[in-house]
Amino acid sequence: MQDGSLLQQLDPSHLAAPHRSLPRAVHCWSEEQLTNQLQVPVLKSRDTEAKEKGGLLCDLVLEQDNHHLNSRSPVHVWGYFFDCMESERSQRMGNACIPLKRIAYFLCLLSALLLTEGKKPAKPKCPAVCTCTKDNALCENARSIPRTVPPDVISLSFVRSGFTEISEGSFLFTPSLQLLFIENNNIKSISRHTFRGLKSLIHLSLANNNLQTLPKDIFKGLDSLTNVDLRGNSFNCDCKLKWLVEWLGHTNATVEDIYCEGPPEYKKRKINSLSSKDFDCIITEFAKSQDLPYQSLSIDTFSYMNDEYVVIAQPFTGKCIFLEWDHVEKTFRNYDNITGTSTVVCKPIVIETQLYVIVAQLFGGSHIYKRDSFANKFIKIQDIEILKIRKPNDIETFKIENNWYFVVADSSKAGFTTIYKWNGNGFYSHQSLHAWYRDTDVEYLEIARMPQTLRTPHLILSSSSQRPVIYQWNKATQLFINQTDIPNMEDVYAVKHFSVKGDVYICLTRFIGDSKVMKWGGSSFQDIQRMPSRGSMVFQPLQINNYQYAILGSDYSFTQVYNWDAEKAKFVKFQELNVQAPRSFTHVSINKRNFLFASSFKGNTQIYKHVIVDLSA
């Protein structure tokens, strides 16, 4: 058959490899069928013409070593096509092409076998630093974990190794490992995912190394683990190792006894006997969150119509700025303002469902505003008598026997610290206290005069001209009466109180000298602690969740944040904040977030976020 040769472009190189496995399925395609199947043009040999229609290509699905190999690429058997004959000759010979197609099928099979054998990877050899048998490998003086260990090894050992770290995925090429010994080396650190993929690992030994800690979840995924040996390491039993103590408590694996080398209080303690309660790993900090581009004096927070708001007194612009929380941007934004002159205090008070704001000013008198929900703005409803309140410095609101009051501390020579009472339509003057004493601060608190007695309302007035004075509420007369003072505490600028486990404490601020923490003893306040003051005008206690803080501001140095130590029953230094001339610190809780607002008389008002950090995570 000179016009139609059976094979074109014979390529004997495909016969180079011996037979290894049989194809699971072989399908031979015509050029047109393959083009339609793959949606790409079929490549042809150089001598194959476009008119040839009897060509065959093969699509192979091979099964070898229990792995399926799906080759969707055309396989050319010696040539790209088989030519059965031209159309006219085929018609004359009838079925003469059928034997040729059978031959082509056989050659297709043979080519698939040869190509598959040529692609089979070589089996990894034993590394030069290791001694290998059928199932075991012992590596000595290795500088790193070798990647060419035979994959069917079930026991692997390292001794006198030259590496000190074990990186992530070091044993991915030995998935059949059941026994792993990394003993008597100088291993200092191990990656969290070092043993990933070792689902068959039964015994793991890291004994006699130089490990001080282990990363959390290092044993995660080792489902078959039954024995762990960690002896002979110098473990530091701090928060980073808390997870190991918890893991030892619930694992089914046998773990040999291991001991702490540090910190000093845990030295030689058995780690297996520790509990998670032995670790105090939760810490907090105030992290800078937002700057407000203006100075401020007082800052207050309040709830109104199911929302939380912040109001800030700006002395230089004379405004009360109201802020609300932006739930989308997660920041505080302007809500409204009240414009005045030299504003020093903006004190909100919500009576039933109505919001009122007492605005204290150094010039132009002080006023009371009401929030008009229909007009959606603040409306002035009352002036505070200017003859009594000449130079307001602080305002405190409180409620006694369902009656609402507020008191204004006046710091002028001719003014009166005055209490005002709500009468249903407005506030009227109820009582004047401490005339002409130049009061700088007023604090409302409730204390018991005798043990096991009910707490009664008290006021503490601070003054630059005498010691702080304590007033007690008289239920019969519905007035405050002068009870006593706090001895040995001259020149106190402000007094603020807090409670711990039912005991009442106060923080007393002094500009220069020592500020103090004192505890109520039933009849008087007693010294507990002193903190050095360097131009301090605020010593503010505040509670955030279960954390009790006290913040001592300074005009000449960093602001000191103290945290209450329950065991010592004292404050300990906690953090420093850089706030220029701070005048108040206010805790604001919004949307399960806690913030600290720090006013500044000479710089920007600052907002810090209270952050809780788990050192064991």
UniProtKB/TrEMBL annotation:
Q: Give Gene Ontology CC terms.
A: cytoplasm; extracellular region; synapse
Name of the gene encoding the protein in the UniProt record: LGI1
Alphabetical UniProt keywords: Cytoplasm, Glycoprotein, Leucine-rich repeat, Repeat, Secreted, Signal, Synapse
Tell me which residues make up the LRRCT domain.
Answer: 233-282
Q: Has the keyword Repeat been applied to this entry?
A: yes
> What Gene3D superfamilies does the record point to?
Ribonuclease Inhibitor (3.80.10.10)
Q: What is this protein called?
A: Leucine-rich glioma-inactivated protein 1
Source species taxonomy: Eukaryota, Metazoa, Chordata, Craniata, Vertebrata
Q: Which InterPro entries match?
A: Cys-rich_flank_reg_C, EAR, EPTP, Leu-rich_rpt, Leu-rich_rpt_typical-subtyp, LGI_related, LRR_dom_sf
Organism's domain of life?
Eukaryota
Write down the SUPFAM superfamilies for this protein, in alphabetical order: L domain-like
Q: Where are the EAR repeats?
A: 285-327, 331-373, 377-424, 426-475, 479-522, 524-566, 570-612
Localization in the cell: Cytoplasm; Secreted; Synapse
Q: What is its main location?
A: cytoplasm
